[in-house]
Automatic annotation (TrEMBL):
<keyword id="KW-0560">Oxidoreductase</keyword>
<dbReference type="InterPro" id="IPR036291">
    <property type="entry name" value="NAD(P)-bd_dom_sf"/>
</dbReference>
<feature type="domain" description="Ketoreductase">
    <location>
        <begin position="220"/>
        <end position="396"/>
    </location>
</feature>
<dbReference type="InterPro" id="IPR002347">
    <property type="entry name" value="SDR_fam"/>
</dbReference>
<dbReference type="InterPro" id="IPR057326">
    <property type="entry name" value="KR_dom"/>
</dbReference>
<protein>
    <submittedName>
        <fullName>3-oxoacyl-[acyl-carrier protein] reductase</fullName>
        <ecNumber>1.1.1.100</ecNumber>
    </submittedName>
</protein>
<dbReference type="InterPro" id="IPR020904">
    <property type="entry name" value="Sc_DH/Rdtase_CS"/>
</dbReference>
<comment type="similarity">
    <text>Belongs to the short-chain dehydrogenases/reductases (SDR) family.</text>
</comment>
<dbReference type="GO" id="GO:0004316">
    <property type="term" value="F:3-oxoacyl-[acyl-carrier-protein] reductase (NADPH) activity"/>
</dbReference>
<dbReference type="Pfam" id="PF13561">
    <property type="entry name" value="adh_short_C2"/>
</dbReference>
């Protein structure tokens, strides 16, 4: 489970060898600790002529205590983040403004720095030219994620116009920044350490800022399935740290480990096999009697039963589809039918990059994880009226027992074939799910966010 190579390259001997042989050089990533400042250095903010987000973004950065660099400053500076409001770009000829902003700063970003480009969703653009130019932003951001190195990540955030293009969108033109704030804070912070090259869509939907950004889940009742170990155990810890009351669920056979997780965080434990026919109703009754509701449902439990398709027995197929996909649907149906997920609620599923790229020996798993993406696509618009957001994360190579079982050579390839040259940690997936769970993230729905260090698979 440990990445010995990454530890080795941090040593003096390791550094020398990496340099001499041109070996992969995994940087030490900046991760979140409560009370940390959002960035290690000042942020440089740029905007294309006519951009509409400079004002809200300035407000967000100022409120978050981020120092804004003076672009005309005489002294060359190093930056914690580069942010560019590209919403003013309406034609491909204006893309030059991206070059003009980023070119002089390409080597001025501090380790584990952040690059954020803000755009308008192409489908909301009034002209084909503007939609084309806005779509082009993806190529820049994904390339910066691959180029800048030293733990720097890059994301494109498409922000709805909210001026009729999406009738219930946020009125960003009037300076409202609430919808965007949670996403900008997440990206800038160490919480997003292993998220890079992503396109995130911020739309309409109610969002409310927390009283304390170090406890963004205060008072929220959160269900985490598969919480006894791995990513689920990290999730329980991170969500409890952020203020949530966690209901941790796992199979009865994992009862001891589950109890340890729940005790550790002052949460409650539910022993339940999600595939049991009465699991949805038993779970609904438990949540109703103990809490009267569940604000956030995190479908994390998942299994693999790998075999190439020709050698796979039907049981392997059935079990994987049932645990990873069908049980999520059955539970959603019952919780929604009984109105246990209130307005402002969240459904967050764990998919996988295998569900995007496919994987040899994993037809069952990849089918189930692609289905999870389908669930987000179909349920997010359907639940919009009820004020419930639906999102998924798609982890890449995460250091857990699941990946420790992969044969060495394949494991080493999986670990290094991404822009950060290392595997992610369970906490990286947990922090990303945490952001989607925050009441402040109500404007983020229908997204599938990869937590994969910009893995080459399925990119
Ligand atoms: P894990 O095997 O360590 O943990 C999964 C947990 O789910 C276990 O505690 C298990 O007991 C529980 N579970 C399985 N079947 C269940 C059932 N029927 N009812 C209740 N609980 C059940 O796995 P992990 O690596 O922590 O993965 C968590 C999620 O992340 C899974 O959905 C997995 O597919 C996904 N994922 C993991 C990786 C990775 O690299 N580890 C990559 C992509 C996606």
């Amino acid at each position: 489970m440990t990445d010995r190579y990454a530890s080795f390259v941090q040593s003096a001997a390791g550094r020398a060898l990496v340099k001499r042989l041109g070996l992969p050089d995994p940087p030490r990533l900046r991760r979140h600790h409560p009370g940390d400042p959002l960035l290690a250095g000042p942020a440089l903010l740029g905007a294309a002529t006519g951009g509409r987000l400079a004002e809200p973004i300035t407000k967000i950065l100022t409120a978050a205590g981020v120092e804004l660099a003076d672009p005309t400053g005489a002294n060359p500076q190093r930056y914690g983040a580069l942010l560019f409001d590209a919403t003013g770009i309406t034609d491909s000829t204006e893309l030059r403004q991206l070059y003009d902003f980023f070119h002089p700063q390409a080597r001025a970003v501090l380790p584990s720095g952040r690059v954020i480009v803000l755009g308008t969703p192409p489908q909301e653009c009034p002209t084909p030219r503007e939609a084309t130019a806005q779509r082009a932003l993806e190529g820049l951001v994904r390339s910066i994620g691959k180029e800048f190195g030293r733990g720097t990540t890059a994301q494109l955030v498409y922000v709805t116009r909210g001026d009729g293009a999406a009738a219930d969108g946020p009125d960003l033109s009037a300076g409202t920044h609430t919808s965007l704030e949670s996403t900008v804070r997440f990206i800038l912070s160490g919480r997003s350490a292993y998220v890079s090259g992503q396109v995130i869509r911020v739309g309409g939907g109610a969002a409310s800022a927390p009283a304390d950004w170090d406890r963004p889940l205060d008072g929220q009742v959160v269900l985490v399935t598969g919480a006894a170990r791995g990513i689920g155990a990290a999730l329980a810890k991170v969500l409890a740290r952020d203020g949530a009351q966690v209901v941790a669920l796992d199979i009865p056979a994992a009862g001891d480990a589950l109890a340890a997780v729940a005790n550790d965080i002052g949460g409650t434990a539910v022993q339940l096999d999600l595939t049991a026919p009465d699991a949805p109703t038993r779970l609904a009754e438990h949540l109703a009697s103990r809490h009267g509701r569940v604000d956030v449902v995190v479908h994390n439990a998942g299994i693999t039963r790998d075999k190439t398709l020709g050698r796979m027995d039907a049981d392997r197929w059935d079990q994987v589809i049932d645990v990873n996909l069908s049980s999520q649907e059955r539970i959603n149906d019952v919780l929604l039918e009984r109105e246990l997920i209130p307005a402002g609620g969240r459904i967050i599923s764990v998919s996988s990059i295998a569900g995007i790229a496919g994987n040899r020996g994993q037809t069952n798993y990849a089918t189930s994880k692609a289905g999870v993406i389908g669930l987000v696509d179909s349920l997010a618009p359907a639940l919009r009226e009820r004020g419930i957001s639906v999102n998924a994360v798609a982890p890449g190579f995460i250091e857990t027992r699941l990946t420790a079982r992969i044969p060495l050579v394949v494991r080493e390839a999986g670990r290094r074939m991404n822009s950060l040259a290392q595997g992610g940690l369970p906490v990286d997936v947990a922090e990303t799910i945490g952001w989607l769970a925050w009441p402040a993230s109500g404007a983020v729905s229908g997204n599938v966010v990869r937590v994969c260090g910009q893995s080459l698979l399925g990119a």
